[in-house]
Design a protein that fits this description.
Radius of gyration: 23 Å
Largest sheet: 6 strands, mixed
Order of helices and strands: EEEEEHEEHEHHHEHEHEEHEHEEEH
Strand order of the largest sheet: 8-9-10-5-11-12
CATH class of the largest domain: Alpha Beta
Number of strands: 16
CATH architecture of the largest domain: 3-Layer(aba) Sandwich
Strand content: 25-35%
Distance between the termini: 45 Å
Number of helices: 10
Helix content: 25-40%
CATH superfamily of the largest domain: P-loop containing nucleotide triphosphate hydrolases
Shape: elongated
Number of domains: 2
Structural class: alpha/beta
Length: about 300
């Protein structure tokens, strides 16, 4: 509720509600391997309750970015904060609010799922045993089979259960469905949506399966050349972006109009070009020399990560 105050004219006004503190705040993040720059002055902000799908070409640095976000890699420059705290100085309470499933499940394979989860339960005061038991049953994971004998998909499901069990406020998932079949991916995405809707969890996950992003990611972030090239709600991008083809001069003239943003452009033969344009004040009727079409998510990915 906003806080009332009284103006000098005797009229009761209300102060604007404060903006929510960012769950993730990265500023000027830079990370190099020798002479190779992976993250190049990257700025990124994730707010409470956002679900963000992270897209980028192979080798673009998605895993590096997620690990730097969590403090698992030390940046060359810049800052990273989680819940308003420097990631390198997180207190125990903040760490307990984070769930993480890496691309390669790091499980103690000599244990059983029951033993593994009991071990991790000891670290968290907020642990939902009902959720754990339900997921183990629904995802057909035998509690007493050694983890080493589980399939790749079962190990990935177990890693996801471990990340979800303590009901984190920030959930970071690196290619969480890579080893799952279509049914397993559908069940996982349903669980992810419920986690967000029920608890307002901030979720960021990388994936190369674009159809999964279309089902669940409310926001899309494109990583290109060490920076976030664009982040926006997926439905908004679909509504406001168009692939426009025509003479290069006509495209350039259109892109210079107020409220029009050129996101990417590709030259074609005969002085023609194809541009991905974003119209911030509604998509206008195009001149007869130009042809526009609504992009698919694959079109956006190809244009923004080239």
């Amino acid at each position: 509720m906003s806080t009332p105050y009284v103006s000098t004219a005797g009229i009761t006004l209300h102060a604007a509600a404060p903006l929510p503190r960012a769950t993730v705040q990265l500023q000027g993040l830079q990370l190099r391997y020798g002479t190779h720059t992976v993250l190049d002055g990257l700025d990124w902000q994730l707010l409470p309750g956002q679900v963000v799908g992270l897209l980028g070409r192979n080798g673009a640095g998605k895993t590096t970015l997620l690990e730097a976000l969590l403090g698992l890699r030390d940046p060359s420059a810049g800052t990273a904060q989680l819940f308003g705290q420097p990631v390198a100085q997180l207190d125990d309470a903040a760490r307990a609010r984070i769930g993480y499933a890496p691309q390669q499940a790091e499980l103690f394979e000599w244990l059983t799922p029951a033993q593994l989860l009991a071990y991790f339960r000891s670290f968290y005061s907020r642990w939902n045993e009902t959720k754990v038991e339900g997921l183990l049953s629904r995802w057909d994971i035998n509690r007493d089979t050694p983890i080493a004998k589980l399939s790749g998909g079962q190990k990935q499901r177990l890693s996801i259960i471990r990340a979800l069990a303590h009901e984190p406020d920030l959930l970071v998932l690196d290619e969480p469905v890579a080893s799952l079949d279509p049914v397993g991916r559908r069940d996982f995405l349903r669980e992810l949506v419920e986690q967000v809707l029920d608890r307002g969890t901030t979720v960021v996950f990388s994936t190369h399966i674009l159809s999964d992003l279309e089902r669940v990611a409310f926001n899309i972030a494109f990583l290109n050349r060490g920076r976030i090239a664009l982040q926006a709600p997926l439905d908004e991008l679909m509504d406001t972006c168009r692939l426009v083809t025509g003479p290069g001069s006509a495209l350039q003239s259109l892109a210079q109009q107020p409220g029009v943003q050129s996101l990417a452009s590709q030259p074609l033969d005969g002085g023609r070009a194809r541009s991905l344009l974003r119209f911030h004040h509604g998509v206008p009727a195009l001149p007869a020399t130009l042809m526009g079409q609504a992009p698919t998510l694959e079109d956006l990915f190809l244009a923004l990560t080239q």
